[in-house]
Amino acid sequence: KAVTKGAEAAVIESVKAASEVYVPITGEILEVNESLNDNPSQINQDAQGNGWFMKIRIHDEAELGSLMSADEYASFVESLG
After folding, report:
1. Across residues 31-56, what is the average pLDDT?
2. Which of 10, 17, 20, 59 sits at 20 to 30 Å (Cα–Cα) from 40?
């Protein structure tokens, strides 16, 4: 499925709320992690490993420059709390 940066790709539901997941880059979804349907806690337990959402073939690698680095993201999350 072709996707555009910023488009909604999925919805995650919890006991308290539902949250949208947005596509970080324009491309094509190659694979979806179906194991999250049975074990969504993988997202929190192992986001860098088994908790991945989808695999995307990038259409424009220049878009990667607009994403946060791991350190920038950690600072951003810390600023929220």
Report:
1. 92
2. 59
End-to-end CA distance of the chain: 35
CA 17 to chain centre: 17
What does the DSSP 8-state code read for residue 37? G
Q: What is the pTM of this model?
A: 0.78
Nearest one of 16, 19, 21 to 3, comparing CA atoms: 21
Strand boundaries in the chain, DSSP class E? 2-3, 8-13, 18-22, 27-32, 54-58
Asked if 36 and 42 touch (Cβ cutoff 8 Å), the reply is yes
